[in-house]
TrEMBL record:
This is Transcriptional activator protein LasR. InterPro entries: Sig_transdc_resp-reg_C-effctor, TF_LuxR_autoind-bd_dom, TF_LuxR_autoind-bd_dom_sf, Tscrpt_reg_LuxR_C, WH-like_DNA-bd_sf. GO terms for biological process: regulation of DNA-templated transcription. PANTHER family: DNA-BINDING TRANSCRIPTIONAL ACTIVATOR DEVR_DOSR. It comes from Palleronia marisminoris. SMART domains: HTH_LUXR. It comes from the Bacteria. Signal peptide: none annotated. Keywords: DNA-binding, Transcription, Transcription regulation. Residues 163-228 form the HTH luxR-type domain. GO terms for molecular function: DNA binding. CDD domains: LuxR_C_like (cd06170). Gene3D superfamilies: Transcription factor LuxR-like, autoinducer-binding domain, Winged helix-like DNA-binding domain superfamily/Winged helix DNA-binding domain.
Amino acid sequence: MALIDIGLEQTSSATLQDFLVKLCERLGLEHAAYAGMDQSQGDIRGFVTYPEEWVRHYRENNLAKGDATLHLASRSIAPVDWSRIPRSEEYDRFLDRAMDFGIPRNGVTVPVRGPFGDIGMLSVSMSGSADAWARTYARVVPELQVAAVHVHDNVVRAFASPHPGIRPTLSAREVEILQWIAVGKTQRDIGSILAISDRTVEVHLRSARTKLAALTTAQAVARGIKARLIDPE
C-alpha cells in the first residue's frame, strides 16, 4: 500500500475508511481512527475502524468529554502514547468502557496541524503486553506521522471549506534536501553528499518546514510528496 494512493482518486469517506483498514493490516495493528477539526469553521469529521456499537456508544454518551487521548493530542505536537497519559478516575472509567467494546488499552495518537487552524489526530491501537506495545510503538510511529499528514491533508482538501490556494515555493536546495530525506538519508549523510555542513542542512530543512506549514521533517516530506515537489521513490 503506497501512502500516495489515497490522493490518486476522488477522496471519499469510503476511500479514507479503506485506507485506515489497510494501514492497520500493513503495520499489524487492530484499530485506527482519524478525527479532524477545522477551528475556523467549528467542523469535526471522523473515520474509524472501531466496532459500530462502540462508535454509537461513544457518540450517544458524549465520551469525547472524558477522552484524554484527544484532549492531550490536540495540545501536543508530538505523538501521545496512551500508556504515558496520567491516570484519573474519569480516564479509567473511559478505558474500562472501551475495553467492554473490545478496544485495546495500548495505542498512540499522532496530531497534525495545518496552515489554516485545522487540527487532525490519527489514533491506532493494539492488544498485547506493555513490552510488545513498546516495540510496536518504536516501529510504527515514523510511518504513522507520515500517514497522519497524508490523511489529514486529504480530508481538508476533500471536505473542508475552501481556503485561498497557497502552493509553497521551495528553493532548489530545499527540494534537493527533502528528496534525500525522503529516500532515507540522515542530515549528516546529506551534508556529505552536498558538501555542506550539518547546520546548513538544518537551516534549509527549517525553511522548508516553515514554507510547508509542517511541524516536523516527516510532515514536510509528506506535504512535499503531496504537492509533487519531491518523488517518494
